Known about the structure:
The protein is an all-alpha fold. The protein has helices spanning 2-8, 28-31, 60-63, 69-84, 86-89, 106-117.
Amino acid sequence: MLSVIGLYGENFIIESKDNFDEVPGFKPEWKYNMNYYPDALFIRSGRRSHFDGMSEDYSSDILKYTYSRHMTMMYNTFFMFVFCSLLPARKIHDEINLLGGIKKNPLFLFLVIIVFFL
Length: 118
């Protein structure tokens, strides 16, 4: 899943318009992927260069105006994968019920809630 988002995310993740689009001097190619789909507003790749390694994709000029939403989405996906693995990690003897005994450990519940909302 992370490989699909990392390698092809700019081809299917839709970017929404916001107040940044109204900034004087704004160029749509800074925020939107205009290479393959000029009419659609897809997210811009957060990679420094294209797959060929020769041409620059996300230059330092763009970083002055906007951040990489593509890499932010990758990080959030990775975090949710790790977070969701907390429940199966509690069971070490091939038990089927992942939620069994979860109320017996209030510290675990407290930490899961804090981590999820931070």
